[in-house]
Design brief:
By secondary structure, the chain is of the alpha+beta class. Helices cover 33% and strands 20% of the residues. It has 3 domains: 103 residues, no CATH class; 107 residues, Phosphorylase Kinase, domain 1 (2-Layer Sandwich); 171 residues, Phosphatidylinositol 3-kinase Catalytic Subunit, Chain A, Domain 5 (Orthogonal Bundle). Helix 6 crosses helix 12, helix 9 packs across helix 11 and helix 10 packs across helix 11. The longest helix has 22 residues. The structure holds adenosine-5'-diphosphate (ADP) and magnesium ion.
């Protein structure tokens, strides 16, 4: 029999996800939503219309909310569902997601009615981190319904001063925590360094810091898709909607790399040009992200590591902007990781082949002036080079990553001066 999940944007019912009799997951907007003045899209890939969206038309967005395949498989085994069943997965873990979307089984209370937080001690947090490889996103824990994309272990929590709590019943979180990983030495410090470097270089960046709980180091990332609002009962958390570039382009997560059919830089720039409410600023922002990722040696900048942020979603005042930078790591620090970039830069997948001509080609594809791009690369290389001295993370891996980035910036400056 067909089953439905109610899809909310903030606390508004926007549509239904339906698992039809054939087992296919399809989506339709609610009529009341379509009739509402100022109704907005859930995703760039889901234009407002009365007709249902087929599985192929909507899977990029909905599967894109869920974690990467390896994590999905473990979650599916733990919960006794199939890893390929997006509907069952969203039913179980789609409470607190990226952006302002929430999934509620039909007949259950509206979101916000059931919001609770459970305070966790530093020891409990450390125990959770140890458990995450076997229990991704804490799926199955009483009251926890959390879903975030990506392959790294992570949880989302609310941090309020020194107090850390787990959001229950789909309550909003304020931070994403990514614990250290044995396989990649010092990855927490690597990501902290590169992200703080981006901030010091003047790029819009998610705020990060390294923390420790009972000897487990972790990266604490402040969510840019959450805001604090003053209400009658004090300060509460509110959501901002977001979707990543793959979701906006209806590209399924299994195909996020360009070589597999994932988005190219040309498609990313076209997307931003087409939907941003401030295209001039956002095209420049995206260009800086691309150059920065090249300078720090981040080969994993695929379409799920760039997002669109929706301000005032669901109102006539909605504004779509490129979200701040997140998940930027110097992947070249780990030689075992792929040396190919997630997206082709000019004619090259391999960063060491990239030269001024590839950036000119990028300018062509992005619809930007060649001299602008040609000038911005060395300009940003100099800014990033100077900024490496301003990020003070006194840890071995961070220092080595800093040295590696300095060398890359110097090499780039040389190539662009000849
Ligand atoms: N600071 C942030 N604010 C809001 N959402 C974020 C933030 N950082 C990451 N996300 C969301 O969480 C997802 C997973 O985070 P990410 O750091 O990319 O993890 P991974 O390293 O596993 O890929 C991202 O795809 C994005 O949707
Ligand atoms: Mg990611």
């Amino acid at each position: 029999m067909a089953k439905t999940l109610e899809v909310y944007l903030h606390d508004q019912l926007i549509g239904q996800l339906i698992q039809d009799d054939g087992g296919q997951t399809v989506f339709e907007y609610a009529n009341a939503w379509l009739d509402r003045p100022g109704a907005t899209l859930l995703s760039v890939s889901l234009p407002l219309r009365k007709e249902r969206f087929s599985r192929n038309e909507c899977r990029g967005f909905f599967a894109g909310i869920l974690p990467d395949e390896t994590k999905r498989e473990i979650i599916a085994r733990n919960l006794g569902i199939s890893a390929r069943n997006d509907f069952a997965m969203l039913e179980r873990i789609g409470g607190e997601c990226a952006g302002a979307v929430t999934f509620i089984p039909t007949g259950e209370p509206l979101p916000a009615r059931d919001y609770r937080y459970r305070v966790i001690s530093p020891k409990q947090l450390a125990d959770i981190f140890k458990e995450l490889p076997k229990r991704p996103l804490l799926a199955g824990e009483e009251g926890v319904r959390l879903s975030l994309a990506g392959a790294q272990d992570k949880i989302a929590v609310r941090i309020d001063g020194e107090e850390i709590s787990l959001p229950l019943g789909g309550a909003p979180s304020s931070h994403i925590l990514k614990p250290s990983i044995e396989r990649f030495a010092g990855v927490v410090f690597n990501e902290a360094f590169t992200m703080q470097l981006a901030g010091e270089s003047g790029l819009a960046t998610a705020r990060v810091e390294v923390r420790e709980s009972h000897k487990i180091e972790y990266l604490s990332v402040e969510r840019y898709d959450r805001t604090h609002i003053q209400s009658g009962t004090g300060i509460t958390l509110d959501r901002l909607h977001q979707e990543d570039f793959c979701q906006a382009l209806n590209i399924v997560p299994e195909m996020k790399y360009q070589k597999e059919g994932g988005p190219s830089l040309k498609q990313c720039f076209e997307l931003v040009r087409g939907v941003s409410s401030a295209p001039v600023v956002d095209l420049a922002r995206l260009l800086d992200f691309v150059i920065f990722n090249y300078l720090i040696g981040n080969n994993d900048a695929h379409g799920k590591n760039f997002s669109l942020l929706y301000h005032d979603a669901g109102t006539v005042n909605q504004q779509i902007r490129v979200a701040p930078l997140y998940d930027a790591i110097s992947t070249v620090y780990y030689p075992e990781l792929s040396n190919d970039m997630a997206m082709k830069l000019g004619d090259a997948y391999q960063p060491e082949r990239v030269g001024p001509r590839d950036f000119e080609k990028l300018a062509e594809q992005a619809g930007l002036a060649k001299p602008l791009v040609r000038l911005r690369v060395p300009e940003l290389a100099l800014i990033v080079l100077d900024a490496t001295a301003k990020v003070k993370i006194n840890q071995d891996v961070a220092q080595k990553v800093a040295a590696l980035i300095r060398a890359r910036c110097e090499k780039t400056l040389k190539r662009f001066s000849s």
